[in-house]
Specification:
heterodimer, A: mainly alpha, two-stranded antiparallel sheet, globular, B: mainly alpha, 10 helices, 65% helix
Chain lengths: 332, 235
């Protein structure tokens, strides 16, 4: 952006279809890790969200009398479906994925005018609406390593039949919030499954981190927003975590639990709903990191990435207003 | 007279509907429409207050000095809302408790003050009452429609708790639209009200747009010539 000279420009060929394919490829390690630790639910979620997302996108495009092929080919709805499905819990049944996809594609994207006009990240909007509407279903996570085989998961996905209580549990972030008078160390000592779970989340987050770094090296997005978000989250966690280590989780827990890495590299780098300029992206990322810490620590919901992203999406136009890069020769 | 009546009804029910077009009284509209019974309760009270305030404002319109008209309107509306509140405590105490603060808040409903200022203080008693009724019914229809949408989506039922308004026999009115529905909490919560309201406004705009389009195509001249005369004197 800064190295742009006067016209004529060479076209880099980075059109949206290629970007979307790269994002899809970069999410594969995280998807594989999530399937390895938490079962085939995520795979079913991904397939169903993408299929339904494409169908919804096509029908809305028909209703809006837009060219079908052109807009379906850009792949944005596939990315939305994939990110939404990765964020949903692995035990999500078909109707939960459907409601989330419906709100993401129809309400958050097309009611605002389609790709490029949506003020909110569609995947996070669909996720947040389901979290508000179905809080119990949205927190149904399997404990790591113990999950249904594929036929049982298939049955659960469509009919919700199966012994779920045996394999589901609270997420580590939720457990660290509801300590019930214990310190974090005591809670972890009493619940070895939470420790296993946290280990699994570490690996999944590292997989997303690897995919995200790959995207950054390929210049799909700049480093500003992810680095700003991760460092502000770490600083918040460090400030509170070193003061009261018994009550507040430290930086490593905040960075490697929950949806932190997925959010940092795949959600907040969405070019449509984030701030535009480089300094704007720094502000945007810092805001999300701080909000994630605040909502995770003192809020009512187990994870905070979706709400933090939506709140900062709301601020993005204002951030753009104050961080507009100065044109060369402009006085102020 | 006939034309005036039709104009008032069209204005209140559709053209400048307080809820869909003027967007007045949104606070109670969004807050209490989580079921048909709640919505209908507030709709009836608001309509009664609106009709009565229009009538009183119209009756006193020649006695009240122009400079103090707004305080007078507010006093009239506040008195009427107090009456309505006491009546609800006497007749439908449970519903009064459910609607809570939104009954006294009718005082601040700008639709009521708006009609007093824009219509009732300039027009005769009969026309003012009709205007209040048209505006009140227009507001009520939107309230009840939004309440029905949110109740069906949120709980899968219609007309629950109607006995709060119409006595014990109305308990039987409850319809279960969707069996074994697990509930869609989002529709009951405030964000659902905003989205439902947005959809209703969009629906009205689509209908208006369609009508305007068909009107346009009717108005087009029947001749196929598209040439337009731009010079000379048109005779």
């Amino acid at each position: 952006m800064m190295a742009l000279f006067s016209s004529p420009h060479l076209h880099g060929g980075n059109h949206s279809q290629r970007l979307m394919l790269l994002v899809l490829a970069a999410a594969v390690p995280g998807l594989v890790a999530q399937i390895y630790w938490f079962g085939f639910g995520t795979l079913l979620n991904v397939i169903w969200a993408i299929t339904l997302g494409l169908a919804l996108e096509a029908s809305v495009l028909l209703m809006r009398k837009r060219p079908l092929g052109f807009f379906l080919k850009d792949g944005s709805v596939i990315v939305t479906g994939l990110l939404l499905a990765l964020a949903l819990p692995p035990m999500a049944p078909w109707w939960l994925v459907s409601v989330a996809t419906l709100f993401a594609v129809v309400f958050a994207k097309h009611l605002y005018g389609g790709l490029g006009n949506n003020p909110f990240n569609p995947a996070m909007a669909g996720y947040a609406i389901c979290l508000i509407a179905f809080p119990t279903s949205m927190t149904l996570w399997t404990s790591s390593g113990e999950y249904f085989n594929l036929p049982d998961q298939w049955l659960w996905f469509w009919t919700e039949q199966g012994n779920v209580d045996a394999i589901t549990q609270a997420t580590p972030l939720d457990a660290m919030k509801h300590l019930q008078g214990n310190t974090i160390k005591e809670m972890l000592a009493a619940n070895p499954t939470i420790v296993n779970y946290a280990d699994a989340m570490f690996w999944i987050n590292l997989a997303y981190l690897a995919g995200g770094l790959g995207l950054m090296l390929l210049k799909v997005f700049t480093w500003h927003a992810p680095v700003a978000m991760l460092s502000s989250l770490s600083i918040m966690a460090f400030l509170f975590g070193t003061g009261e280590p018994d009550l507040y989780a430290g930086p490593s827990e905040h960075l490697l639990l929950g949806a932190t890495m997925l959010g940092a590299f795949f959600i907040i780098t969405d070019p449509v709903s984030s701030a535009t300029s480089r300094s704007g992206k720094l502000v945007f990322g810092v805001g999300i990191g701080v909000l994630i810490y605040i909502i995770r620590t003192w809020g009512a919901y187990p994870d905070a990435v979706a709400f933090a992203v939506l709140l900062m999406n709301l601020c993005a136009p204002l951030i753009d207003q104050y961080t507009k890069p100065k044109a060369y020769g402009q006085q102020h | 007279m006939q034309v005036e009546t039709r104009h008032i009804l069209h204005q209140g029910l559709w053209q400048s509907n307080p809820a869909l077009v003027q967007l007045l009284g949104l606070c109670p509209l969004l807050a209490v429409t989580n079921s048909v019974a709640n919505a209908l309760g507030l709709a009836i009270v608001t309509t009664l207050v609106l009709v009565a305030s229009n009538a009183l404002v119209s009756l006193t319109r020649n006695k009240v000095n122009k400079d103090v008209r707004l305080p007078t309107f507010v006093m009239i509306i506040a008195a009427l809302v107090t009456v309505a509140e006491l009546l609800m405590q006497a007749l439908t105490y449970e519903l009064y408790q459910i609607l809570g603060i939104f009954i006294p808040l009718i005082v601040t409903n700008c639709a009521i003050l708006g009609r007093a200022e824009a219509y009732a203080c300039k027009n005769s008693l009969a026309l003012s009452i009709l205007d209040g009724l048209a505006m009140g019914v227009g507001f009520s229809l939107v309230l009840v429609l939004l309440g029905a949408m949110r109740e069906v989506l949120g709980q899968g039922t219609l007309f629950t708790d109607m006995h709060l308004l119409f006595g014990e026999s109305a308990r039987l009115w409850e319809l279960t639209i969707i069996d074994d529905y697990r509930g869609f909490l989002f529709a009951i919560l405030p964000p659902g009200a905003f989205i439902g309201m947005g959809l209703l406004i969009a629906m009205k705009n689509v209908i208006d747009h369609r009508q305007a389009m068909s009107q346009l195509s009717l108005d087009e001249p029947s001749s196929k010539s598209r040439r337009v005369r731009v010079t000379g004197i048109i005779t």
